[in-house]
């Protein structure tokens, strides 16, 4: 992972993941999408980050901030910093 890269872990069937993607796209923010169904290592990483839970979307920012299932307002506020 690049030090300047936002990573979003999710699944194609997750409506919250689609919503978060729309926020990123509306703001013109680049991110790396990792589908848990396609990457077993990613699923294990999400569980590690969420203390055993497989919650999506899990979004990891370059500064180490992690948002899990953020509301639009929370994600937009984080992107504004």
From TrEMBL:
Using the record's annotation, list all stretches that form the Glutaredoxin domain. Answer: 6-61
Domain of life of the source: Bacteria
Q: Which InterPro entries match?
A: Glutaredoxin (IPR002109), Grx-like_ET (IPR051548), Thioredoxin-like_sf (IPR036249)
Q: Which Pfam family is an annotated match for this chain, by its short name?
A: Glutaredoxin
Q: By what name is this protein known? A: Glutaredoxin domain-containing protein
């Amino acid at each position: 992972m690049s030090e300047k890269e936002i990573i979003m872990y999710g699944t194609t069937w997750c409506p919250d993941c689609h919503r978060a993607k729309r926020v990123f796209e509306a703001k013109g923010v680049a991110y790396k999408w990792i589908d848990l169904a396609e990457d077993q290592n990613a699923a294990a990483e999400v569980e590690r980050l969420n203390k055993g839970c497989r919650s999506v979307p899990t979004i990891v920012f370059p500064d180490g901030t992690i948002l899990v299932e953020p509301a639009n307002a929370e994600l937009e506020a984080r992107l504004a910093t």
